[in-house]
């Protein structure tokens, strides 16, 4: 593709992904149509279908690409504060309408592999912070970091998915406080 | 209904529920048909449809009724051993084909309220054991029991549902060991 055509193609792609996320937030997954995304992005329907066979794949790409762009590395603070902030952000994301719609759609379509992929960035951040804490002696050196991360995230994801209780910052703070007692020397 | 008819009706109901569980174990949810359940139970298809509108509702009732019957109250042992045994049993149940099929079917049909109901008996047992441990001074008295139960079950259910890692007894033992460090005085 000549450089100008490649640039136009990148611009169209970004316009489509942005429109998809805006519309799933406004309409929810069930009412979202490829026609509406095409109209808002100013491209033809066929352009969308050429890149994405279904609205599910389109939304998944939109979510992964546009979300990753906004993620900054945060300066480190006290371990407990850092973990609480991470879990509160995880909850804020889970209850955000567009994320909730995309994730539940994937669960209902039995694409739990993709749900796991969507959730992986948070898990990686938590594991990095915990590994750092291990090196700094803030937690015991024999703690299994992946299991510790699941102790933090498991209760939160379970409440979100199965709606077993209110998904609040107070709940996740308690999970952090309990887990830190388990991890500290 | 005269007593004889009521007994016949109870017998038919039990035969249908038993056949449904056997067949979902043998065939999986997708291949299970109401015709096959009727044939094995020795009742007419209409008898099944009169009581259960869909195979999903039939399987759910089968699971709840026949499972509850087999649950015994266990003598208490050391707290850590009891919790490890409970989680290992939870895992054995989750990976059992008929339970796995019924639960994933419910998740895919967005009936997570029913999944929660299916999982509730285990949660209740864990909460009772933890409350007892609180009264006996085995764990701190200020521990929030429902949150502690989610710390134990959340990581297990998350691994089961999202397949984020191998669902083994070694994993759940680690979860118990870590959680107990959090709960003990």
Automatic annotation (TrEMBL), chains A, B:
Q: Which GO molecular function terms does the record list? A: DNA-binding transcription factor activity; transcription cis-regulatory region binding
DNA-binding region residue numbers: 33-52
Would the keyword Repressor turn up in this protein's UniProt record? no
Q: Name one Pfam family in it.
A: TetR_C_11
The protein's matches in InterPro entries, at most eight in alphabetical order, are given as: Homeodomain-like_sf, HTH-type_TetR-like_transc_reg, HTH_TetR, Tet_transcr_reg_TetR-rel_C_sf, TetR_C
Q: Does the keyword DNA-binding apply?
A: yes
* Keywords carried by this UniProt record: DNA-binding, Transcription, Transcription regulation
Residue span(s) of domain HTH tetR-type: 10-70
Superkingdom classification of source: Bacteria
Q: Which Gene3D superfamilies match?
A: Homeodomain-like, Tetracycline Repressor, domain 2
List the PANTHER family hit by this protein, alphabetically. HTH-TYPE TRANSCRIPTIONAL REGULATOR RUTR, TETR-FAMILY TRANSCRIPTIONAL REGULATOR
Name recorded for this polypeptide? TetR family transcriptional regulator
Q: Which organism is it from?
A: Saccharothrix australiensis
Q: What is the lineage of its organism?
A: Bacteria, Bacillati, Actinomycetota, Actinomycetes, Pseudonocardiales
């Amino acid at each position: 593709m000549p450089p100008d055509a490649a640039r136009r193609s990148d611009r169209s792609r970004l316009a489509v992904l942005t429109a998809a996320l805006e519309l799933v937030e406004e309409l929810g997954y069930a009412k979202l149509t490829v026609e509406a995304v095409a109209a808002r992005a100013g491209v033809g329907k066929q352009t969308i279908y050429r890149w994405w066979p279904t609205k599910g794949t389109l939304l998944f790409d939109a979510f992964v690409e546009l979300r990753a762009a906004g993620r900054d590395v945060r300066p480190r603070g006290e371990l407990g504060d850092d973990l609480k902030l991470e879990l509160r952000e995880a909850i804020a994301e889970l209850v955000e309408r567009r994320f909730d719609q995309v994730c539940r759609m994937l669960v209902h379509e039995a694409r739990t592999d993709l749900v796991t992929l969507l959730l992986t960035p948070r898990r990686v951040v938590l594991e990095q912070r915990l590994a750092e804490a291990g090196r700094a002696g803030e937690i015991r050196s024999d703690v299994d970091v992946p299991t510790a991360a699941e102790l933090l995230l498991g209760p939160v994801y379970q409440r979100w998915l199965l709606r077993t209780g209110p998904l609040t910052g107070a709940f996740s703070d308690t999970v952090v406080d309990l887990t830190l007692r388990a991890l500290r020397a």
